[in-house]
Amino acid sequence: MATAATDLLTDIKKDSYPLQSTTDLDPLMDRIGDAKYVLLGEASHGTHEYYTWRTDITKRLIKEKGFSFVAVEGDWPDCFEINRWVKGYPEARGSITDVLNQFDRWPTWMWANWEVAALAEWMREHNQNLARNRKVGFYGLDVYSLWESMELIVDYLEKEDPKAAVYARKAIDCFEPYGEEEAYASALSMMKQDCKDAVVKLLHEVRQKAPFYDHDPEARLNAEMNALVAANGEKYYRTMASFGGNSWNVRDLHMVETLNSLMNFHGPEAKVIVWEHNTHVGDARATSMADRGMLNVGQLVREQHKPEEVVVVGFGSYEGSVIAGSAWGARMQEMKVPQAVENSVEEILHAASAENKMLVFDNSPALKEFFNRWMGHRAIGVVYDPGWERGNYVPTKLSARYDAFLYFDQSRALHPLHLKPNGHLAPETFPFGI
Fold first, then answer.
1. CA angle, 111 as apex, 105 and 112 as ends, to 5°?
2. pLDDT (tens digit, 9 = 90+) per residue, 325-382?
3. 140 Cβ partners below 8 Å, 6+ apart?
4. Rounded mean pLDDT, 139-144
5. Would you place residue 300 in the very low, low, confident or very high pLDDT band (cuts 50, 70, 90)?
6. Euclidean distance between CA atoms 68 and 129, whole angstroms
């Protein structure tokens, strides 16, 4: 047994790639090849290295392989403001910090941070001299912004399509008594009827008329995606409030539907980089999630496309620090991430060598075979309790869940824009999901 363990550590040292500079990503670029979907994960929403290395990968994919846009685990309306800014639209706000400081829901640190600001500034510079239809975009895939999306639809349709605006106002009237998503979800348990019909009619009307809206093609896209958020957002909150419903699946199905709409919008040559938590991009069929009937973005994208068209990259670390909240609605704070538990993915990689490294499973049959067995893999959400460390591990077959894995031995907390110098923090967590 000791010999087998020694052989494994030797294989990891021999077959993994060091991670020190962007040139060390060459094996990953080769593995990506001509793929159209590159899904980049993260083991937390608050780790500096996950954001900066995803940025390095993203830059290379855009420059070297012509990727069309970045799609993230964020709300559509807020992320569309980033999209406007990186493309240099006249109505965009003055600076990227002005844009990011408008993120006032969800865990704001997740996108309103200096690491994202650096990527956005690079994208704006990259886009500066490109034709309008060649500029690289930035979009949100998530379903949470139901109210904000409804309001944006009404404002837009009242100018562009008064008939469709009638459906939008009916939907708003339906939701109006509840004021916010959580209140609507709670009220559903006592309601005989809901707002489903209103938002479905709205989505149908917007999709039917979208090709005839104003001359700005992204305005049409924005209207349709906000309508989709309204329809699927209503379904999400209704499912969340019901017994036996699987709101996780509703959310991830929405994100894939949004992704597919974006790919259709950008045309047959489009390529996308997805930024989401490992629990969304890492194939659910290779985790204990499948036993609970859960699916996710990574699984669905793999199922819908040829194997060579999709590459999934996971991230993890052994110990360090992270930005998270101690409870729902708690203030964000920097927390210590303890050493990974024994026999977990992260502990095994640390035992092999205490350095950053990358595994590309197709390049090492030995590692692909070893990591195609069940072992714990750490997942930190927006709410985190370092004292309950063993509860943060998802049983995983790593080489089936991902095509490649980036490991960081010592990780650091990212740098939120809203982290005040005097230590006073605003509530930063949102009470649903990872």
1. 80
2. 987 667 899 999 999 999 999 999 999 999 999 999 999 999 999 999 999 999 999 8
3. 71, 72, 73, 74, 75, 76, 77, 78, 79, 80
4. 86
5. very high
6. 15
User: For the chain, give me the number of helices (H) and strands (E)?
Assistant: 17, 11
Question: Is pLDDT above 50 for 179?
Answer: no
Q: Nearest Cα to 302, choosing from 256, 345, 361, 249?
A: 256
What H or E segment, with its residue span, contains residue 52?
Answer: helix 48-65
pTM across the whole model: 0.86
Beta bridge partners of 71: 139, 274
Instruction: Flag whether pLDDT at 99 surpasses 70.
Output: yes
Domains with residue ranges and CATH for the chain: 2-142+272-411 (3.40.1660.10), 148-245 (no CATH)
Of 150, 139, 170, which is closest to residue 229 (Cα–Cα)?
A: 150
Give which of 177, 173, 171, 283 is closest to 233, Cα–Cα. Answer: 171
Contact 238, 247 (CB under 8 A): no
User: Is the predicted pLDDT of residue 36 greater than 70, yes or no?
Assistant: yes
CA 342 to chain centre: 28
- Region at 396 (left for phi over 0; alpha for psi -120 to 50; beta for the rest): beta
Could you write out the DSSP letters of every residue in 74-135? EEHHHHHHHHHHHTT-TTS-SSHHHHHTT--SS-GGGTSBHHHHHHHHHHHHHHTTS-GGGS
Q: Determine how β-strand 404-411 pairs with β-strand 357-360.
A: antiparallel
Task: Report residue 9's pLDDT band, with 50, 70 and 90 as the boundaries.
Answer: confident
Average pLDDT, the chain: 84
Question: Is residue 101 within 8 Å of 108, Cβ to Cβ?
Answer: no
